[in-house]
Amino acid sequence: MPAETAPAQTPASLGYRWPAEWERQASVWLSWPRNPATWPDKFEPVPAEFAQFVRTIARYEPVNILAGGSEILAQAKSLVGDLPNVTIHDIATNDAWCRDHGPIFLSGPKGTQPALVDWEYNAWGGKYPPFDKDNLVPKIIGKLQGRKVFTPGIILEGGAIEGNGEGLLITTESCLLNPNRNPHLSREQVERYLADYLAIKKVLWLTGGEMAGDDTDGHIDQIARFINPRTIVVCVCDDPTDDNYGPTQQNLVELQNLTDLEGRPFEVVRLPLPKPLFVDDQRLPAGYGNFLIVNDAVIVPQFGDPADATAIGILQDLMPKHQVVGSPSLDLVWGLGSFHCLSQQEPLAHL
């Protein structure tokens, strides 16, 4: 970052950091599905499947849902308003992808004000306007909760970054260095923002490519995820005839060659992919890497595929202190995302 634009006080300089998803959470934030264009000709079953996802989260921790406008508010209340662990807010959004338009919540030392980072949002490089209401969400939540709001002034989606809570972050060149996000920034400048606002010490870049059907230019939460500080699960396709074969095999090799802050390789564990799913000619980015970690549980998308149970078993073996559960996502994934894309965890303010 050029010296003249560096903020006087960054979250990192004040002792804030971005916790790992498996650290204790205060709640999960969601935005109620409201845009039929996101699920063309298949929107009708989406709210009910989304509601099942809400009910699964609410078994483990509080849920905050943005559901602005009388019609959306009424639908959300009718489907999940009976749950004592759910709070529904009359706050409007353009779409449902809270991972990307929501804030990144930070934890800080005791005595610091609860804080969040308000990145700019442009719907994955301007692909799906309008996104004005989505872009306002972090500021609104900051005001609602009385949080300190840090505003870097650059575009970044939550699904594009994956952290281990100890200063490491995985991302993809195809997304973070895409000229449709921040064409004025170099790799080094992007890394400086991540260091200043998320307390990242080392950025691990993947170049292998994105999942077939993904419209985010390669969000990491469709590709690879930390499940503890030194273990990464990666979605891998073993069918040479599948479009996902080359990119996922390259991602696997690149992850096996990455090292942590001490120069040690990671434990890299393969996750299967379900058989290819299509709606008409549209390939869907269906994968088990889009799971959500909540307090004491992991919620894994299910697609009616034999690999559903295999993915749950792999994650359960890796995370024995969590209950790994499945929830249907066959309708939701037609929107080109799943549980992680739809949610944003709020860690405890002080860990």
Briefly summarize what is shown:
This protein has 351 residues and is an alpha/beta fold. The protein has 10 helices and 18 strands.
Fold blueprint:
Layout: E1 25-31, H1 46-58, E2 63-66, H2 70-80, E3 86-89, H3 98-101, E4 104-106, E5 115-117, H4 123-126, H5 132-145, E6 148-150, E7 162-163, E8 168-172, H6 173-176, H7 187-198, E9 202-206, E10 224-228, E11 231-235, H8 245-256, E12 267-271, E13 278-279, E14 282-283, E15 292-294, E16 297-302, H9 307-318, E17 323-328, H10 339-342, E18 343-347
Helix pairs in contact: 1-2
Task: Give me some keywords for this one.
alpha/beta, about 350 residues, L-arginine/glycine Amidinotransferase, Chain A, 3-stranded mixed β-sheet, disordered N terminus, globular, single chain, 4-stranded mixed β-sheet
General form = globular
CATH topology: L-arginine/glycine Amidinotransferase, Chain A
Instruction: Give the C-alpha Rg.
Output: 19 Å
Order of helices and strands: EHEHEHEEHHEEEHHEEEHEEEEEHEHE
